[in-house]
Specification:
With 753 residues, this protein is an alpha/beta fold. The N terminus and C terminus are likely disordered. One of its GO terms (molecular function) is N-acylmannosamine kinase activity.
Amino acid sequence: METRMYPSGESSYLGPHELYFKNLSKQTKKLMEKNGNNRKLRVCVATCNRADYSKLAPIMFGIKTEPEFFELDVVVLGSHLIDDYGNTYRMIEQDDFDINTRLHTIVRGEDEAAMVESVGLALVKLPDVLNRLKPDIMIVHGDRFDALALATSAALMNIRILHIEGGEVSGTIDDSIRHAITKLAHYHVCCTRSAEQHLISMCEDHDRILLAGCPSYDKLLSAKNKDYMSIIRMWLGDDVKSKDYIVALQHPVTTDIKHSIKMFELTLDALISFNKRTLVLFPNIDAGSKEMVRVMRKKGIEHHPNFRAVKHVPFDQFIQLVAHAGCMIGNSSCGVREVGAFGTPVINLGTRQIGRETGENVLHVRDADTQDKILQALHLQFGKQYPCSKIYGDGNAVPRILKFLKSIDLQEPLQKKFCFPPVKENISQDIDHILETLSALAVDLGGTNLRVAIVSMKGEIVKKYTQFNPKTYEERINLILQMCVEAAAEAVKLNCRILGVGISTGGRVNPREGIVLHSTKLIQEWNSVDLRTPLSDTLHLPVWVDNDGNCAALAERKFGQGKGLENFVTLITGTGIGGGIIHQHELIHGSSFCAAELGHLVVSLNGPDCSCGSHGCIEAYASGMALQREAKKLHDEDLLLVEGMSVPKDEAVGALHLIQAAKLGNAKAQSILRTAGTALGLGVVNILHTMNPSLVILSGVLASHYIHIVKDVIRQQALSSVQDVDVVVSDLVDPALLGAASMVLDYTTRRIY
């Protein structure tokens, strides 16, 4: 079958969401019967150019697959119908849509006056079309001057307007046009939480805003498994390899045309010097585009052996080209929005997208005023691979939008209502008045178990999955991927929106690269392991990785007793001994990512051997492994069990048996626990003298058994100036999972060059 965004008959999302659509159809039919409204909703989709069609096409395919609910009318205008811009209306016909009306609305000239005249021409022609079609609702996308004409016509003719991608902030005149359309529109579909908040701040009705994500992401997130090499060869030549070419797409900035033309000239000079095969797309039809084309021809780009200059690339093929490019450069919104789905490096030039939310793959060159600066940015970015970003969507936008359309009550008054300040605290709601819960996937790699959880912004563990941790790398990484994929699918059913994946693991971790450098002996085959790349590639989500002790500290900072404190230390007492240090509200990693290895503080020069190769460490005394070792010695000498105790033959003797014996009065067990607690207490005294934190938090299964001994040691051994520092037992049930989740939930990034 031909692969499209949403092919006729069976759309790409109907497989995974078939049950959703069946249930939704039943609910909607009941709603229509209740309202006495069995009429189909007549939807007019108007598309002006290649860019907005890539966002509107998934919605159009979705509408087409539900003829029992919708009638679709397609209106084509703007640069779609101009030969110099590729006659892109043909791709609409190739997608098997019937074009009801073609309107030639562009006045050539490619300057400011031509843009104004084009809006006027569209306003003259549109009333006849809308009178003939009589749509119930018109879908308008984005921020183009053509879209402003569409929204103005529909509003004045009392036709309801659904605006896609309102509330966003970029640059140039586009911002003003986008916000003007927002004020004309009756319903809003936005892509990001920030855009949603902007719409609310603009006094739009909360109940008429849907946070759906970008419709194009429904296509993007399933696009990378195709035969992309044939597409690369077709557009760039047979000798070009994946990740070894550049895609360039730069448009004029209508509020500073002269500077944008100069910047385009510098960009082309830098690309020529960089000497990589480059696909250059012609600019859009905004004022200044004619001059930019002249610059291309002056520099001989169309005939240069390293360049391929094209007017249009079909969207299906374009996303394959940017997904496998070594870099994308320019000022197109595609670079800061869609390309993030693949982790492709992007260089964003100038101010045209200055307010856009971006992933860490985007390097901004705000003042692109020299060739050297652009060239340096190319050297910094080319060939890198970043985590895939889902800032603008999770691949489920179209089902949400169709559900939103079905909820529109045509009996409601047409007049808009504005929600003037003060703005309510609650944010916009989904159709069923149920907020999708912002959540993280948290992974905890322990010595025994592998756990994955869906964790909400408030620290609630919505659902948890547990499996035994396999012994080999291959089995372990496959199990992690399998559990995360299952959890991500379950999150959709639980109404949770997954923002990213956080991983807590034992050993030394480079959190910048997402690599486990050296693991503990408890986790085998786990050295020099890149965890970020396979998870990011599979889930299309950003991924963070850190040591389990650091994660425990992060959990306390966000959800526990460290919340709001500037300086505190967390000590984990479990199978091993670990910890995390928060200093001036930030986690300390150290120069070689070895900070907070608190279990290996030496408290005795002649102490027992430690797993690290030294001896006398806290872990050699107070860890679960150390207590198990001492329990086995007592048991082998028949000195462990006391009255009221028994150990089944098939059960290994462990730390809990030692604790039980101590509670039942076993003097030797009590002595061992006292020694272990004293060693831990001496370690805490060293921490107090070194870090001088305002709080020490003991975490883990053994913490409650040590707390009183630790406090006694502090009273006896610590300087008077630190004896008032409080030592408490953590009240968090799953600090490793919560800490892993907090890396995701707290993360924001802005990269400025």
